[in-house]
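Retro notes - structure team

What went well: the batch runner handled both jobs without manual restarts.
What didn't: labels got mixed up in the shared folder, which is why I'm recording both outputs here explicitly, each with its sequence directly above its tokens.

Job 1
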Amino acid sequence: MLTMNFHTLSLRAVLFLGLYHSGRRSLTSASGLQEPQPHKIAVVGAGIGGTAAAYFLRQEFGPAVQIDVFEPGTVGGRLATAKIGGHEYETGGAVIHPLNLHMKHFIEKLGIPPRNDVPSKMAIFDGKELVFEQSDWFIVNFFRMLWRYGFSFLRMQMWVESVLDKFMRIYQYQQFGYAFTNVERLLHAMGGDGFLTLMNQTLEEAMMGEGFSQVFINDIVAPITRVNYGQSVRINGFVGAVSLAGADSGLWAVDGGNKRVCTGLIYNSKSELIHAKVTSVTMKSRPSKRGNAVNLYEVNYVGESGSAHSLYDIVVIATPLHQGKSDITFSGFCPPIPSHYPGLYHQTVTTLVHGKLNMSYLGTTEPASKFTVSDILTTDSKYCDINSLSSLDPVTIPGGYKRPRASHTTVWKVFSPQPLTQDQLQRIFLSYDSVSETPWLAYPAYRPPHRKTPPFILHDRLYYLNAVEWAASAMEMSAIAARNVALLAHHRWHQQPGKIDQEDLHTRLRGEL
């Protein structure tokens, strides 16, 4: 296990060396103009991972390469919105952590403002009644938590911060051009053996090992994993820590909808968006000007004009290669590349309801006119048939906007494992005039012990970005994987293995200082 303490370097020195290394790599590329450069790169999938990959590939390979992004549906993938009553609302990935540096960089680069913040309050529901309701006063919330759980809530925040502190190392690795060939190596560079241990135990086991009580885990931790991943505290410890970070303060979103980041990245990268479904990738050998054979990848696809195909030097698959998520086939490869990797994706159904909440469903006598809770999380109880219930704000907050109280008709988002029945809708809402349902195979089913994840490298110049989801699924995880794959593609194309699968960044920096 490699122990690193990046705090021994001054911030000024790190920033200076970051600029130095970035410039040096750019100069190396510029001085190597005689080297053959890729002519065409294909990215399959226009979610946050695919569009971020196009952005980073443009950074690595420069302006001359043609980058095509294939997407049969709407740009954004699992970042999506739905329109109700003249406003757009998020149905997919909704929040971004303040330490998500790639996402922060994207919106700064694209000039997209963050969404105006609207104060929120949370409650926890056990299927019969509200077992906890947040107050408007911080000191009241603090003492309520202290009375029921001691200092467990503060200790949980400290534990999550310790994980995030290690997580942040990946940005320094990527700043200096380091890349990793598989998820396990990437995680080890972040957090050493500790992160791999988290992958092989449940969140429940990890937190009990840290001294948290079963009551605290059931009452506080389980509702967070249910709203973020639709799964219990028996998910792996690493994705569990990511989930708990998603309940942190300072969370934000993009004005106009988070999917705007994806469309902006395609535009900024000067990529060509091809509205087509990729059906297969085939290995092809073609003669070059020098007389030797060159291996290319034939991407076969079906669009509005019918079937077609194109040849590419590099291909990045940015869509899950799993049952129910993709049916892309791979031919001509030795050893063969599977169309589906082991593991299943977990279904979460998002239902947007424009209606009035039924307060009796929550088992409270509080008048709806005074109920200001916006997010209702649920415990892992046999009485809970939903994962969460939230009052939604539009993706663009109008001037003077205030979130309506429960006595008014407003837009509610319900997360549930199965589509809501009419009976369920009528129990949750007094009345409603519209219902919009979106079933997502949103995340992998995280069931430790951890099986070996798919590799980032499927073939010589064929890469698989979504392998990272089997560690944790989040917008920032996809962006990190996109940066990693772009660096891998660059180093392997130029036969520069010195920054692949290396964990000696700290040693190198000290040597150069």
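Job 2
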Amino acid sequence: MKIRNKLILIGIIPVVLLLTLTALFLWATSQVERATHKAIVADELASTLSDLSILTYEHHIYFEERAHVQWVDKHTFLDRQIKAETALFGSAEEQALLEHLSRTARNLGFLFAQYGPHPNHGKGLHLSGQEKSFHDRLTARILQDLAVAAPAAHALHDLNHDRSLAFSRRIEMTGVLVVGSIAILLLVLSFLIIRSFSVPVRVLNEAFAAVSGGDLGYRIGSVAKDELGNLSRGFDAMAQRLQESNLALHRLNLELEARVEDRTRDLSGANAELRLNEERLAVLLALSQRKFDTEEELIRYALEEAVRLARSKVGYLHFFNEDQQTLRLFQWSEAVVDSCKTEKTPHYPLQQAGIWADCVRQRQPVVHNDYPKLTKKNGLPEGHFPLLRHLSIPIFDGENIVAVLGVGNKEEPYDADDIRQLILYMGSAWEMVRRKRVETLLHESEQRYRAIFDESPDGILIIDLETGKAVEFNDVAHRQLGYGREEFAGLSLADYEVRERPEEIQARIEKIRRDESDNFETEHRTKSGEVRNIAVSAQILTLGEHQYLYAIFRDITELRQAQEGLRQYAVSLERSNKELEHFAYVASHDLQEPLRKIGSFTELLARKYQGQLDEKADAYIGYIVDGAQRMQTLINDLLAFSRVTTKGKEFEPVDCNALLARVQLDLELAVKESSARLSVGDLPTVMADAVQLGQVFQNLIGNAIKYCASGEAPEIDVAAVAREGEWLFSVHDNGIGIEPQHFERVFQLFQRLHTREEYSGTGIGLALCKKIVERHGGKIWLESAAGRGSTFFFTLPGVRSQEEEEQST
């Protein structure tokens, strides 16, 4: 073969191989792109199936119109996806998988339609037991079909993904084989030519060796015009094209690898997201299906599941009071209880809480993936377990933060997936807590009602207005009338009502309907025939479309008998009091005249015979004068005491500020002599006898001045505060005080705690104050301790407004 032909052959063969390689590469690239596109479509189908699973859970749990509409939209989108991409999948295996997905989609639409039209208001809480059982089975069937369809979508994705990777590997192997083939061919031809043209062949051999060694930039640069020169130039051209093709192939490989890597990363992220969603939904499903006796048990279980869901080792939950800005520790996870030896702090003011409360301050999740290196922290108390990583999230109820969840010591750093998982999980868990609280309140309310109903000392009846019979009653109702429970259930209201005839009973019921309630007295006949006085409180009770009479009755027979006895006793007591008051007044008045004579003549005797008799006679005369004066004072005090009720004036509005001003004028001399400091607050206007109320203030302030500590100036404070429809007055001093065992004694008539040599007086002042305050409808008492001063309190009814008077009328 001629050199020219050989060289032509050397030039043609590599070109043909390169063109073939290029064609194969373009075809394979299109196949890779097609397979990659089909894998993406399959992944989108799987994502749609996953969304349907989530919407099915949400529709089952909340049964809301929003979830229903979203499910139908997502199912319609799945049908469009399958129909639009049917032509894309050509192989029998792909067609089988796609047909399986299409059948599943049709079956899902049929199953979801079995729920029926969804009401606008939702009816999850109004489903009967049979409906709820049907919905549970229907939801389980839909979820089962979705679970079966998901592997088909994944299999479709994996099939095309594997094809894409296989074509890529084939392209690489083909390129290597073609380049190797070209190198081998050139080496064989070079060996043949060397035998005839050693130098050119050696040059060409070196060139081939360089190219074979990977130096595609090597060039011979021959200027010869013969066949070898043409061959050299052809070689140079071939090397140039080979270099360009290799560079292009390298770029394409890099682009393909980058696209495959990006798509693989996207698919891995989608798979991870799907796994997290499935894990969270499984935890929520288990939480919703588990029965909890108390809210604490529910939250404890939810906390442990949150720690496990976040792959953490410890956790806690604090309740947050947004009004008071305090955090209350509710629960530590079991691992914390086992490892933490520090003492629990039940409440944390938000301002004093550490960085673990930043999520409340920032109203968003906060992550500390390197807790030991944090600078702005309070530090851990002694005995606290080591904290390496920490994630805290606020739990919202509407716009308000109600709790804080914290987890810690995950082996890997906390990321956005952990935050999203915990936010979604705790949001659903908190809804369950709210429902548990409502259930607990309803249960407690029912128990309280049942306890009141059963344990009430009064008879309670719920009477059917159509039959007149009691449909519900407590034990007191039938026992008071002497009937057994079954006997009483067969009686109508007219069977034991004595005072009113049937037509009057019906008129009474109509009156209760008009006025909504009624309180009245009547008479009931017991099984033995005895008639008892009964007080009744009744109202109409509407349950559904039926009305009942709800009645509470009490046997007041003994009360009426006791009231009659008390009335007769009160009449007798009032007559005795009047006689006693008249006797005290007459006795004190009749004693005045002989006492005045004794006093006057004794004083005359003392003036006339002073010094003329012996010392004993003078002392005896002094005793007589002093006794007469004290007797006169006692009689005047007794007369004043008796006149509290007999000579008292009608009550009228009294401005206590003006009244205290007059009392201060009367005590002006005593105040100056004792250097007393009298402080009076803002006092009210009350309905009272101004003269008698002035006596109360004068006695209390006078006693405060009299019984002051030795060497100290009296300090007296007078004040008044409103308290539940009355005024509470107080007179405080810094005097010698009173021991507690004498608190009752000081208000008794003529009772003294000191001798007349120590403190003057008759011991009637506080008794007089007590009688005046009680006449005004109040009460008086004191608080004191020996050596620490005293505070006297007394109450007076408040002045009621015209509106209150009309209401009471």
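One thing worth noting from job 2: The chain is about 60% helix and 15% strand.
We'll revisit the folder naming next retro.
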